[in-house]
Amino acid sequence: MSLVGKSLVGSEFGSGSEGEFKAINPASGETLEPAFGLDGKDAINKATSLAAEAFQSFKLTSGAKRAQLLRTIASGLEANVDAIAQRMQEETALPEGRCRGEMGRTCGQLRMFADLVEEGSWLDARVEHADPDRAPLPKPGTRSMLRPLGPVVVFGASNFPLAFSVAGGDTASALAVGCPVIAKAHLAHPGTSELVGRVIQESVATCGMPEGVFSLLFLPGEQLAQELVQSPEVKAVGFTGSRRGGRAIMDVAAARPEPIPVFAEMSSINPVFITRGAVAARCDAIAQGFAGSLTLGSGQFCTNPGLVVIDNADRDAFVAAIDKYLTKMSCTPMLTPAIADHYRQGLEAFASQDGVTVLGSGAGADSPNPITPTVFGVSAEKFLANGALSAEIFGPASLVVFCDGASDFLKVAGAIEGQLTATVQYESGELESFTDLVSQLESKAGRLVFNAFPTGVEVGHAMVHGGPYPSTSDGRSTSVGTQAAFRFCRPVCWQDCPDELLPKELQESNPLGITRLVDGKRVI
Amino acid sequence: MSLVGKSLVGSEFGSGSEGEFKAINPASGETLEPAFGLDGKDAINKATSLAAEAFQSFKLTSGAKRAQLLRTIASGLEANVDAIAQRMQEETALPEGRCRGEMGRTCGQLRMFADLVEEGSWLDARVEHADPDRAPLPKPGTRSMLRPLGPVVVFGASNFPLAFSVAGGDTASALAVGCPVIAKAHLAHPGTSELVGRVIQESVATCGMPEGVFSLLFLPGEQLAQELVQSPEVKAVGFTGSRRGGRAIMDVAAARPEPIPVFAEMSSINPVFITRGAVAARCDAIAQGFAGSLTLGSGQFCTNPGLVVIDNADRDAFVAAIDKYLTKMSCTPMLTPAIADHYRQGLEAFASQDGVTVLGSGAGADSPNPITPTVFGVSAEKFLANGALSAEIFGPASLVVFCDGASDFLKVAGAIEGQLTATVQYESGELESFTDLVSQLESKAGRLVFNAFPTGVEVGHAMVHGGPYPSTSDGRSTSVGTQAAFRFCRPVCWQDCPDELLPKELQESNPLGITRLVDGKRVI
């Protein structure tokens, strides 16, 4: 598969009417061939109207049929893994192992959703039988289950060119439940996006689905991205990116004549609270684990530990241990020159804040976009007085907050914004005294981590990768794991509907053999 | 229990600093004693901060404890049913049977949510066991379940002074899941609101809950209602009312520094599609059922059938049958003089539209706010060309759209906005030819009704009372039935958490014996 350098509008290529651009290799600063054509309103209109048309039949496909599509995409990606991983390395400077590992995760997600919708119990099918003899009024028969919302716009992320982009979790979960997808490619990795997009495009054709089930657009600037969100045919949005960008999309979606849900994953500093007992028992191991979590993927993870909370009395021991490991750490180049610039600006902004000191830093990397892992320190008092210190610095930077006892821990936990994760490092037997802390953190985060670090997001049934605003637009959802399927659906009730017109999942004989709630009892 | 005429701010009465007002009996036009004190920012600040404080302990109560609260409220309402029903009649002009019936439904809802949360399986508890030997990386143990969002503001509805107001479905579902409630009373029925609110206030105290679990505010004007929604302590909103009012609340909530979800039920014309076969088989019965559904409760139901779609060829038979039953119908006075005024203005607006004729009307009622049930007619062509004809006239008015064949049915279904319900009246064997119509309607509505009328909303596990915008703010939820509990929650994941710190629902031994998803299998 060689690169064409065009948007994919259903089964066709975009016209590239809005100019062109080339990707940049962040490790070398060199531009990469070929040029990619940018598209505008025409492509948006065509992709969204194809998606709306496709929805009318795609929503009626069986879970098994959509599972086939997802598995065909996964197989197609694996068949092209060498080309995709190579182009991804060139466009992102991420190491080969990471590129191949992310491909494994991406295909795993596709197959996970395939298994989920092929089986069908996730739909929360409910059957309430009629009772014509009920007094004072007869009881109607009602049956409900989840149904797809309609076309979904997916914004590809810079930091996961596969797992959170064109064929990532948002796309996989939307296609799984019966929603066509219009992916907006992240312009930092257009070649990776095109290669993945073409696998999806081919899979749609192979599976006999209407072409509008998938489009991939290269759009210049925010204006056109917002116009895409404003399209009346679009019924939901998935987004992974910055807080500023995510909020802009949220505001556009909320201001539409018909507001639509936006699932934006935006920013998180993922606080790590370390008890006195934990420092006493394993200071060195915690510092090592922290340094590794902080610098993993050059700190470009949404779950990067950007805030550490410890007791003042542990300061010297912890700082010495961090210094020991952090100085050994260097980072590969960041994903784009702009991201590296923002990182350096973030470091400067923190360094200039009242009471903030540099506790340690790693080695600078040898690249056109050198960055240095950095750990700052500040007192709880200064932290609580300065909201600027709660900002995310996207990259391998963290702030250690020194507390005067457990009451400061609680104050810091109460002051932070919504987070994807919150972590407690503790010692067995000690945790009971931190019950209030854990309860406070539960109100702030989507995932509570105990004696581990927040990076590494397990893809499964019980994962929640979504927390209160501003970590995401809406903490009532997750973008990772099977529960992500719920985002692009709504419940529909059929009242006194003839059996033959009901979806199979709701028919009286339960032909698919799924778990249902029948007259209030869960029946497997 | 005699009326005090004050807001309830936690366990205390409001100061009434913003003036006072009296209720009006819509049947007589007379003002009712006593005066009610209006409150402002002070009461808002106090109620919201009490709610936030209460949330810290209320969220940790067991489902059984919250079930006790809900049942105590239900029993308290029943103990005061005579006083509440009498005041409700005076304030609303609704007949006694309706008032008592709505009390039964309200208490039924409270007990339904009590049963739900006492049992606990609704929380979707998920357990994924750790696998330390997994390659290449060990698998962490993850467990997830739903947790409450925080304080919820509930706007009482005019048309259901009990079932969708102070102790209505929004309040019951919020309290059930662990969210404190700040109810904003509808000023059309302040006495009913106070009597119900005081039962809740007393129940909170009886059950040993913190006072901030419930407040009831009388607020003047929209500005203060919006300030209540803007309070940082408020984490979600339930609303039942007009499209204009609901959208204003949605916009305020979306523009907050921390946007919050709004569950607003706003407007719906609940289209009824009647096939040729149905008219041929039972024209008279359908017309009778329609006239009854249209005028029930003076047409003041959110599921009132405001649009009927039939074939041109059935015009004469159907119009004659409607006329036969409609002329017999009269309505009790509407809930408020303002609602009656809006109704009459709506009739005038429709009557002046191009191609609209009056097909029939009922008897005028003898009251200070007389209204006349009215059925208009228009061709599909004119209907499709004029968006104004899709507006809701709140009250006993409906528009019959005459179609040239089944393709017009599809066009009308495609043109309508989001609806709470869509109904098909058909004959057995005939429906197969309407598969496309049913599929189209599924995209437009939350509930599909077959061979019945949309009024009458069954309260149960499979009910969906919520459809695409503008029928509600967010079609992904329901305000009626047990699935309403999902609205005020979000999933939280505990990773590698010590068993004793987990909520009981997630502990390894499953001490509550609830249904859970364990390693991908639903275990009862």
Question: Secondary-structure map with pairings?
Answer:
The structure is a homodimer of 524-residue chains.
Chain A: E1 8-9, E2 12-13, E3 20-24, E4 31-37, H1 41-58, H2 63-79, H3 81-92, H4 96-119, E5 126-128, E6 142-148, E7 152-155, H5 169-177, E8 181-184, H6 190-206, E9 214-217, H7 221-230, E10 236-240, H8 243-255, E11 262-265, E12 271-274, H9 276-295, E13 307-311, H10 315-326, H11 337-351, E14 357-361, E15 374-379, H12 380-384, E16 397-403, H13 406-415, E17 419-425, H14 435-442, E18 445-450, E19 489-495, E20 516-518, E21 521-523
Parallel strand pairs in A: 5-20, 7-8, 7-10, 8-9, 10-11, 12-13, 12-17, 13-16, 15-16, 17-18
Antiparallel strand pairs in A: 1-2, 3-4, 5-6, 6-19, 14-15, 20-21
Question: How would you describe this protein?
Answer:
Chains A, B: This is NADP-dependent aldehyde dehydrogenase. Chains A, B: Keywords: Oxidoreductase. 2 copies of one chain form a homodimer. Chain A has 524 residues and is an alpha/beta fold. The first copy, chain A, folds into 2 domains: 8-21 and 33-120 and 149-266 and 477-487, Aldehyde Dehydrogenase, Chain A, domain 1; 271-450, 3-Layer(aba) Sandwich (Aldehyde Dehydrogenase, Chain A, domain 2). Chain A is built from 14 helices and 21 strands. Chain A has a 7-stranded mixed beta sheet, sandwiched between helices. In chain A, strands 19-6-5-20-21 form a 5-stranded mixed beta sheet, with no helix packed on it. A 5-stranded parallel beta sheet of chain A has the order 9-8-7-10-11, sandwiched between helices. In chain A, a hairpin with a 2-residue loop joins β1 and β2 (12-13). Chain A starts with 7 loop residues before the first strand and ends with a strand.
